[in-house]
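Hello again, I could really use a second opinion on something today. I've dropped the whole record in just underneath, so have a look.
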Amino acid sequence: MATRRSKPSRVRVRVPTARARHDPARPLSWSFYDRPTERVARDLIGRWLECAVDGIRCRGRIVETEAYLGEHDPACHAAAGRTPRTEVLYGPPGTAYVYFVYGMHWCANAVTRRSGLPSAVLIRALEPLEGVEAMRARRVLAKRDSDLCSGPGRLCQALGITGPRHNAVSLAASGLRILHGHPVGRAAILATPRIGVNEAADWPLRFLERDNPHVSARAETARFLRATSVRR
């Protein structure tokens, strides 16, 4: 009597959906930051910066950045060489560099390029997305929501970012993360000279989303646009 051959069992393989592959809430990997600093600064426009403090999560869309290129850049902290303050800049890409300035403000940066090549991108402005009530409570002097995160010090205050809590943490696996968000096309990004620096201030390393009301230094940006349109 012939025996019946059983059919092989089917093995189900889960294939990531398009939504899972392009999840905007997924953290950027270290390889995103392991590139020339100017490219990282431009490509951060449209990404999301997220900070969770004491169980409160705040999130904003990055609309303005500045690139600081390394020891040869006189406006970069690394121009002073390797010091206890700048040690983080020499570390792995995708690390947060959070420093205190003017004795009153924290500033948040993303370290770029491989270890030993000190450079970073300063996050200059956000468009608030989540946790807006908490941002308003921390930024009581802001008259409009467009002023909550319109500047590096303002956005750190709004999101609760500080050096003791966030300096040198991974931007992919900590309470301070940068997420995929929704990248912005190059045509929607404007490059201008940097703001608030005395050295190499004319280098076009400030990147911002055109016509976004949440960017910082709006008056300076308007003057730059008028001047460049006249030259054209």
